[in-house]
Amino acid sequence: MELLDSSLLDAADAVRAGKISARELADAAIARIERDDTHAYLDFDPARTRAQAISVDEKRARGEALGPLAGVPIGLKDVLCTRDARTTCGSKILEGYRPPYDATAVAKLRAADAVFTGKLNMDEFAMGSSNENSAYGPVKNPWDKSRVPGGSSGGSAAAVSAGLALGTLGTDTGGSIRQPAALCGVVGLKPTYGRVSRYGLVAFASSLDQIGTFAADVRGAARLLEAIAGHDGHDATSVARPIDEYVGACGRDPKGLRLGVPAEYFEAGLEPEVKASIEAGLKAFEGLGCTLVPLQMPHTKHAVATYYVVATAECSSNLARFDGVRYGLRVDPGKDLEAMYGATRDRGFGAEVKRRILLGTYVLSAGYYDAYYTKAQKVRTLIRRDFEAAFAKCDAIVGPTSPSVAWPFGAKVADPLAMYLADVYTLPASLAGLPGISVPAAPSASGLPVGMQIVTPAWDEARMLTLAHAFEQVSPAKGKRPARS
After folding, report:
1. N or C: which terminus of the chain carries fewer CB neighbours within 10 A?
2. In what order do the strands lie in the sheet with 258-262?
3. Residue 176 annotated among the catalytic residues of the structure
4. Strand pairing of 258-262 and 396-400?
């Protein structure tokens, strides 16, 4: 078995025990990335990766204790600030930009002795569901390279799926971790809003953005979450709550847990082969001793509209800072300051980012603020109350992560609404600030990955991981990987 086909935990344990070196793992990752054609990486520097690995090996040689991610090759979504690598957010407006500091999550991975493989491709400013909005070209799904990997964290999901890293970080605003994890056949975990510091994360929608983890298995995603979770004084939305033993939660028995199954998650729009996979997964949960509880969550149908008012309003405000004055691209037509702003933003932003800025500016404008933004915030509260009522009857909510398997490139580009509906099952939990995870379920009839989503009450990632790990052990997808390059 190749080094990168081991689990994240096994690799870290082997480095700490001296069975393999961090340099060997790094070289294996570099070799795979160099021959891979998924276009998962935007910033890849073999010398930088080897230097980090050598530093870990030298630390061990000095007899110093190694961290929980000792020598593990980890990729970072290109929306996370890194002091030693470019951070472009998949946009031309930040082409070549190098931040002067690390995001808190990145700094925590360094402290845990992880080795960074590079920065990962993404939809521009995390706005998209297919990775087709990257200014630097789309990522290919490792299972079928004529299909999308999902988005916006498409590079993060594809890198784990293709074996280019043992774990990655992504971000989830409305489903951007869980949906690409489902389409690429890996585990993707979004923690509770406030569980992980957003300091150093380039903001899209500040009340929704959350950093999370990808790995080939549930325990790997849990180990990464243990490393990055926790309060941070640099982030006002970071919450000081105890961090559970997430890896330890993976071995617990889920017997007796009540699993809510919302009727709204199985209505029109769910592909038959996805529905069949999820229904088989629900029977597997019953076989594990769980009880299925039918639910009604009536405000689910408003989640897409609510999200695309709230998120675009916040993006309009957050992206105002990209103006060509302080950093990034500057296009100066030689007229005046206003002309420079306009020319810079017109050339620097892609079509989807412009669409969302315009929509967000509109819903925040005088005369429309109450009609759209205020009303959307009220509906967001109703969606949160749906979850509160549901969790009075059950311990977790389960269902499909995505309504479809990965679709061919170009299939939804001309229809933004069809693209937005790809996140219909992930948006409600995001609006409510709840933790969610996608775990591979039985593949579709065509052999493409399908994801089972598990959502638990706020701060209960441990219970979510118990259920995810138990399901993983009985899932027909366990151990399945796409053909390697």
Report:
1. N
2. 41-43, 115-120, 73-77, 167-172, 210-215, 187-190, 436-440, 451-455, 396-400, 258-262, 291-295
3. yes
4. parallel
Q: Which two tokens stand for residue 3?
A: 């080094």
Question: How does pLDDT run across 327-343, given as a tens digit for each residue?
Answer: 999 998 888 999 999 99
Among 130, 134, 152, 277, the active-site one is 152
pLDDT per residue over 159-209, tens digit each?
999 999 999 999 999 999 999 999 999 999 999 999 999 999 999 999 999
SS3 label, residue 352: helix
The answer to whether 103 and 87 are in contact (CB under 8 A) is no
Q: What is the pLDDT of residue 341?
A: 93
Distance CA 373, CA 410 (A): 31
Q: How far apart are the first and last CA of the chain?
A: 15
Q: Is 415 exposed, middle or buried (0-12, 13-18, 19+ CB in 10 A)?
A: exposed
Among 21, 130, 176, 475, which one carries the catalytic annotation?
A: 176
Q: Where are the domains of the chain?
A: 3-256, 301-377
CA pair distance 117, 377, nearest whole angstrom:
39
Which pair of structure tokens corresponds to residue 444? 């579709």
DSSP summary character for residue 373: I
The DSSP code for 276 is H
**Residue 63: what pLDDT?**
96
Q: For residue 28, what pLDDT is reported?
A: 97
Q: With contact defined as beta carbons under 8 Å apart, do 204 and 175 qualify?
A: no
In a 3-state reduction of DSSP, which class is residue 393?
A: coil
Residue 212 three-state SS: strand
The reply to whether 161 belongs to the active site is no
Q: What is the pLDDT of residue 334?
A: 85
Average pLDDT, integer, range 79-85: 97
3-256: CATH topology is Amidase signature (AS) enzymes (3.90.1300)
The dihedral of CA 53, 55, 61, 67: what is its sign?
A: negative
Contact 158, 141 (CB under 8 A): yes
pLDDT value for 29: 97
Q: Which token pair is 134?
A: 């990257």
Please indicate whether residue 77 is annotated as part of the active site. Answer: yes
**How confident is the model at residue 454, as a pLDDT?**
98
What's at 288, amino acid-wise? L
Closest listed residue to residue 186, CA positions, set 146, 225, 155, 145: 155
Catalytic residue among 21, 77, 197, 444: 77
Q: Could you tell me the pTM of the whole model?
A: 0.97
**CB atoms inside a 10 Å sphere around CB 101:** 13
The residues near 212 (Cβ < 8 Å, ≥ 6 apart) are: 169, 170, 171, 172, 177, 188, 189, 190, 191, 196, 225
> Each residue of 385-425: pLDDT tens digit?
999 999 999 999 999 999 999 999 999 998 888 899 899 99
